[in-house]
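We store amino acids, tokens; thus:
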Amino acid sequence: MRRAPRLLAASGLPFLLAACAFQPAPEIATPTPELPRAFFYAPEADTGAALAALLPNDDPAWRTLSAAALADAPSLAEAAARIDAARAGARRAGAERMPNIGADASVTRNRINPAQFGTAGQQGFIPREQTSYGANITASWDPDIFGRLRAEERAALARIDAASAQAQGVRLALLAEIAASVIDWRVIEARGAAIASDAEAAQALAGLAKSREDAGIAPGFDRVRAEATASGSATRLAALESERARLVGRLVTLTGQDAASVRAALEQPAATLAPAAAPATLPSELLANRPDVAAAAANLAASDADLAAAARARFPRITLSGVIGLLAFDPEDFFNDSIVGTLTAGIAGPLLDFGRVGAGIDAAAADKRAAFAAYRGAVYQALGDAETAYAIVTAADAEAQLALAQRDQLNRAATIAETRYRAGLASFLEVLEARRAADSSGENAAAALGRAARARVVLWQALGGDPAPGQAENQYTP
């Protein structure tokens, strides 16, 4: 009867040792970063603009190419694979908390020296060769009393959220690049139309100069200068084709489509660029809308769970295991009273690990501090991107408005100069200078409108874009 207390004390010794070695995980403060009340360059809250209106939704090329990219873009396929990998990791972490049941079968043949058993072996009571046949069902389970496995599962689930947010970030970047490329294509079309108009006006001016030359009232030098101006417009028009080629190549990479399909989509007619009003939002909304902020928050949650799991490694682990099977030395006796079984309860914990567990806790704590710093960095990156985007939209709108006004004024000045030249009240040099100024103003106005439209795409991405369709369905449910 005295052995029972001793066995109880011996079995509780690892708990006592682990309790002596245990130290709570360090507390890593993760306060929410302070945010400004409003964006400095944001419009008034009553503008009523929509975030989705910042994209060229009325452009058929945008609709075609964005749909193709969402269906077959390589970057999105890679991001989806990373989500699947994170889900598999979460399923594995959840399965670790369940019992592990297996089965095995064996045939074992042993040959021994009977002499080692003394007289019994020498008299033949111990066989020299023996064959055993066995089949077992094994089971083991860690009840996770101290929560290490639960913490690991929480970390794995948080990594699913991080992978999903990163995939959303890839999607937004992809759509933003496609939208910017489509806008650049429309700008090239507008520039081409302006240059073609300039070339037509220069040709008309050259014809007028030739008529005056033929009449003997103007030198031939006027006609040569007018023709040179027309040739310059033709050169500028030809140079646009290289820009078109670069855009097609970029869209092939983004969408995973061939060049012919991309070119056919871009050649669909579209309305003139008309940038929409910028929507008003609050800095606090970035914490929920920006994928990079959401990914950083999920990584911070995962690092917190990793720290908890590392701290629980100081506690002992209790394992319950059992085996039930059949064992026989003759195949005929395999199902004849050959049942064997074992039930085991084991406990193991750190005693003298010379700082291994402590080093793991310190590493996990450092990872959590790094994750929090990355989260703060993502928040302030989002704030900076939004402030910059709002400011660029404001500046681009002002530039576009001035460029359009300048275009109209210079075209009117060129018309007046040509009328005065026809009436003999102005020199050809005055007409030529007015024409050159008007020629560049049309292309500059088209480029300014394109920059204003592109600035809205940057703002759309900076504010977090639109949620992906069915994004809620991608969340993992344990």
Q: What stands out?
A: The chain has two domains: 29-97+147-314+356-474, 100-115+128-143+317-349. The first helix runs from residue 3 to 21. The CA atoms of residues 382 and 462 lie 7 Å apart. The two ends are 48 Å apart (CA to CA).
